[in-house]
Automatic annotation (TrEMBL):
Origin: domain of life: Bacteria
Gene3D superfamilies, alphabetized: 3.90.1200.10
Pathway the protein contributes to: Glycan biosynthesis; glycogen biosynthesis
Subunit: Monomer.
Listed name of the protein: Maltokinase
Organism the protein comes from: Jatrophihabitans lederbergiae
InterPro entries in the record: Kinase-like_dom_sf, Mak_N_cap
Domain Maltokinase N-terminal cap: 15-117
Amino acid sequence: MRIDTAEVTRVLPEWLGRQRWYAGKSRSGSVAARLLATLAPPTENAQPTLTGDREDQQAAGVQIWIADVTYPDGVEHYQVPLALRTQRVEHLDRAFVGSVTDLDSGQSVELYDALYDKEVTGVWLRAMAEESVLDGVTFVRDAAASEIPVSESSLVLSGEQSNTSLVFGDAAIMKVFRRLEPGLNPDIEIHAAFAEIGGRHVAKLLGHVTTERDDELWSLAMLQEFLTTATDGWQLATASVRDLMAEGDLHADEAGGDFAAEANRLGMSTAEVHADLRTAFGTTVLDSAQLRERAAAMNTRLDAALHEVPQLADVAEGLRKAYDDFAEISEPVTAQRVHGDLHLGQVLRTSHRWVILDFEGEPAKAITERQANDSPIRDVAGMLRSFDYAARHQLIDMGATPQSEFRAAEWAQRNRDAFCNGWAEAGGNEPAASAVLLRAFEADKAVYEAVYEARNRPNWLPIPLASLHRLAETA
Ligand SMILES: Nc1ncnc2c1ncn2[C@@H]1O[C@H](COP(=O)(O)OP(=O)(O)O)[C@@H](O)[C@H]1O
Ligand SMILES: O=P(O)(O)O[C@H]1O[C@H](CO)[C@@H](O[C@H]2O[C@H](CO)[C@@H](O)[C@H](O)[C@H]2O)[C@H](O)[C@H]1O
């Protein structure tokens, strides 16, 4: 079975535009498909059927395609693993990408997002367990072969994510990176480093997948142990806010489901992760010239954001003042590897401890930028933003009143303080002592969030905008 690149190029744009992880929705780019690798030819991949249905008995081929999207100011590359089938498959309807023609037989070939096709996802795990190289794609095993659950069936996680994650049984989770860039993905890099130093607050790395092109390494996927008993911080924090709002007039410390003790432990765990990152990668110092450069970059991000979110004009002057204060910090600032996109959706509470996930950094930044050392206050700011989000997002659904606004602000403040105290107690500096850094980082993050919300969840845009008003006023 051979399919024509031009035909794949024809069907991809409409499907891409519907994917949550596709960052190009608000821009017009031209899409060109290219075949990266064939992981399994159609005839060699027949799997025993799960359901016994006839349609499942077709042998699907598996290919990794890349969608190169060209905009006036650059190119983005998206990974699109495709399952090639000879017939439409009803239960895969939501993963249908398009129909093309087999160049050899003239028959129709039905293309599906392979990550939703349970009959083919085992290819990735088997190749990692066997440390295979398939058509230039290298499958690396980072744990014992017995820890790779090759015979488990997969299920795609349905959350709003930048990548696509599949859970195999309840043993492993594979994240397939969607937007690709040259370089070892920091998520793989940091998990591998933590395996060496014995970091306690991350999930175990089981394997990863890379390829080489034009003498550069590209990261395609990462496999980790799946933490079955875990609940994510966003669910726990928003349940606490719901409990509070359901009570008539109680304060956050009086209502059931108070989150502050967990926020405090989360702060401590974050400080331990920062210490592990220092052990693994060392520290550097940001001098005044570098601080000015970072402030200039924040201003540039604000300039770009103003084009997409015109409401930012009301706060721009105050934010620029926060960035000026950052540029004028006179003492050197200690820098290290950081998480880069820390928020409540990136932390899991297991029965033993908080675990931090997804060390990729902000998906919108280049890998080199995400690997650059920064102040760990950047992560503290990210989490503080998340407490604002958890408190305020329910006001969007239920409608804000002066009283609910007040109570949401009180919940956010209580948990922000608890987190900062935990971070300081476990070895971070007191964040309040770094107030200028904290305010600038919070502002920079909330500007990023304003763009993110405008593109993905416009009804949530008021959340970062409200915080930006507060930050602009205090600058
Ligand atoms: N090791 C794990 N164990 C259990 N759940 C996980 C694990 N890793 C990720 N998850 C779940 O998958 C979600 C997405 O993972 P994440 O790494 O944040 O992907 P993305 O880069 O797409 O945002 C997380 O919010 C979490 O709910
Ligand atoms: O997909 P990622 O987890 O890498 O991160 C992106 O999506 C996040 C939303 O899912 C977004 O986070 C923002 O919304 C969260 C609530 O859904 C909130 O807790 C965060 O504080 C807020 O930044 C994140 O910014 C984006 O990079």
